[in-house]
Design goal:
single chain, alpha/beta, Rossmann fold, Spore Coat Polysaccharide Biosynthesis Protein SpsA, Chain A, 2 domains, 15 helices
Length: about 450
């Protein structure tokens, strides 16, 4: 049994060490909290092994929080600072999961574990299907700093540490059966220098070679879907404006997918017979629904309304002009149902395009935006403006769509900020069947460039 007097002395000693640590690394810790806050939306069920003082898990405003902390000193501090967090004084490799969580925060966990693979496997047991793991750790390049921390009394002398690269942690995740979504390094300037620190920490992580020198490494992975889950249902959202020549054929050509296929046409203030044609077809097709409003508010608003009204487990976007063949939606369904990814983005950059399907200026602009996007979001994205996309409804509901412009960038940035696992699916692109394209190269290009600039400082 612990001596209460010795326990109090040790507790005071640890608190003094923590206060010194916060003064020296305050900006770094704030940066890590912001990083987690941008990945984990408020109101989620979150789990953190070796939660320490509980500050990190508390910062994401969870609906339900559980921390494992084998060190009684830190466990007591956590209970005092954050009484809303449930604390178990156990190691993650020996604790028995009692319930499942949506996210797991593993902050400097693997640096202290004797069995790293077993630790990752144990964390997975605490997560729901498709649950996310967020690992952060010190970049081995900066190991000399550890000696300085020990001399300053900020790290214990009697503890040995593992030094892992992002590739090491990704390899452990894959061995544990997880799918790695993103890896990299953050925080190049750990000092709170006004403006300068923000610019450095935003720009350098996106520059090849240099981006491997960040102070803190991170890996984001996910647990696979439940292989025994029921077959998902599908909602195909068709946003349209003045598509009376195309909408009937587009509806007819949508294939049957999953346990049930719902077709949801969103009429964005059309001045022709688009809505009337859909109503006529509703008399014969029970799975067809219509959302119609006026005045016109743009494709992004139509997509947002379609996502809100969708009842399927999977939501897809299909443009009414049929420039992407409706029959190819089956490939999007198969990729999601087989758990290949969480978000499927169509790309028109692989197959030859029909003459007249895309002007040279649009092609150049799309390639440039694809390169910029890939740098910004850390995942491959060769076609930012392909109208055909698919994701799970539960993920779509967590993405904030502004309802302005085309909506493609909003959706892609939302996917990137929530760290959904994205893959691209090649599609055949042809000239629209009838009518005119609503996109204007220079006007919309400028708008999209401004959106990229704003989002670049908000992404984790």
């Amino acid at each position: 049994m612990r001596d209460p007097g010795q326990f109090q002395e040790s507790l005071i000693r640890e608190r003094r060490r923590l206060e010194r640590w916060r003064k020296i690394t305050g900006y770094l810790l704030r940066s890590l909290r912001v990083f987690h806050q941008r990945i984990i939306p408020p109101g989620e069920a979150v789990f953190q092994p070796r939660c320490g003082t509980g500050d990190m898990i508390a910062s994401v405003a969870p609906r339900e929080a559980l921390g494992l902390e084998p060190d009684g000193f830190f466990a007591e501090i956590c209970r005092t600072r954050h009484p809303e967090i449930e604390i178990l004084e156990q190691e993650v490799v020996t604790a028995v999961p009692e319930r499942r969580f949506n996210y797991a925060i593993a902050c400097h966990l693997l640096e202290q574990e004797d069995e790293c693979l077993k630790a990752v496997e144990s964390i997975c047991e605490w997560l729901c299907p498709r649950g996310k793991l967020v690992f952060t750790f010190m970049n081995p390049v900066w190991v000399p700093l550890v000696g300085l921390f020990i001399k300053l009394g900020l790290r214990p002398k009697d503890r040995r540490y593992n030094y892992l690269t992002a590739k090491d942690v990704s390899n452990l995740c894959e061995l544990a059966g997880c799918r790695v979504i993103e890896e990299g390094y953050k925080v190049f300037c750990p000092l709170p220098i006004p403006v300068v620190a923000h610019i450095i920490n935003t720009v350098l992580p996106r520059i090849p070679v240099i981006r491997n020198l960040g102070l803190m490494g991170y890996v984001i992975a996910r647990v696979p879907s439940d292989p025994h889950r029921p077959e998902p249902s599908v909602t195909v959202v068709i946003p349209c404006h003045n598509e009376q020549e195309n909408v009937a054929e587009c509806i007819t050509r949508v294939p049957s997918m999953g346990s049930r296929t719902e077709i949801l046409v969103v009429d964005d203030g059309s001045s022709d017979r688009t809505a009337d044609i859909v109503r006529e077809k509703q008399e014969k097709e029970s799975s067809l629904r219509l959302i119609s409003y006026s005045p016109r508010r743009g494709k992004a608003h139509a997509v947002r309304e379609g996502f809100r009204g969708a009842s399927g487990d999977i939501v897809m976007i299909l443009d009414a002009d049929m420039a992407v063949l409706p029959e190819e939606l089956v490939n999007f369904y198969r990729a999601l149902a087989a758990d290949r990814a969480e978000f499927i983005n169509g790309t028109r950059m692989l197959y030859p395009q029909e003459v007249g399907a895309c002007t040279i200026w649009r092609l150049i602009g799309n390639k440039l935006f694809g390169i910029l996007f890939s740098i910004l979001i850390g995942q491959r994205c060769t076609d930012t403006l392909c109208g055909t996309k698919a994701l799970y409804k539960e993920d779509a509901d967590k993405i904030k769509l502004t309802g302005r412009g085309w909506g493609d960038f909003d959706l892609l940035f939302g996917v990137a900020s929530r760290k959904l696992h994205m893959l691209e699916l090649p599609v055949h692109y042809q000239e629209r069947k009838a009518g005119q394209s609503k996109m204007r190269f220079f006007r919309d290009g400028i708008q999209l460039a401004l959106l990229c600039a704003r989002a670049s400082v908000r992404l984790p």
